[in-house]
Design the sequence.
């Protein structure tokens, strides 16, 4: 499977993220501000791309990292639907006792990085 992320800025754009998937000559909306479940899915795919599926060399001030951080900030404090939570006790307990305790701190850390980053694709 090949995933290509294409972003574009224009003067009429709002500041929300809409993510489309193109296949077979059709364009499908897969992520929007109105549907957090879609944002979770796009965040997961982008995380995989940036950390292990070929995007490891993307610049930290590029469009991929901008979208990744914006998606993180939009879903980090949302409850993950039950059907998408880990089913094994190991991962569930690790989340509860290690990561959830530092969630506010992590959100602040990512927000600080995002706000300080001068992205190459600065929005108009």
Sequence:
């Amino acid at each position: 499977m090949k995933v290509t992320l294409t972003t574009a800025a224009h003067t009429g754009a709002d500041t929300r993220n809409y993510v489309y998937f193109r296949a077979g000559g059709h364009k499908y909306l897969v992520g929007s501000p109105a549907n957090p479940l879609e944002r979770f899915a796009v965040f997961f795919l982008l995380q995989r791309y940036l950390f292990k599926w070929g995007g490891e060399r993307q610049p930290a001030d590029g469009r991929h990292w901008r979208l990744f951080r914006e998606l993180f900030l939009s879903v980090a404090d949302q409850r993950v639907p039950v059907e998408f939570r880990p089913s094994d006790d190991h991962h569930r307990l690790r989340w509860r006792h290690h990561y959830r305790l530092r969630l506010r701190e992590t959100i602040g850390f990512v927000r600080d990085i995002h706000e300080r980053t001068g992205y190459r694709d600065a929005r108009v």
Q: What stands out?
A: The radius of gyration is 16 Å. The mean pLDDT is 79. The chain has one domain: 19-116. The chain has four helices and two strands.
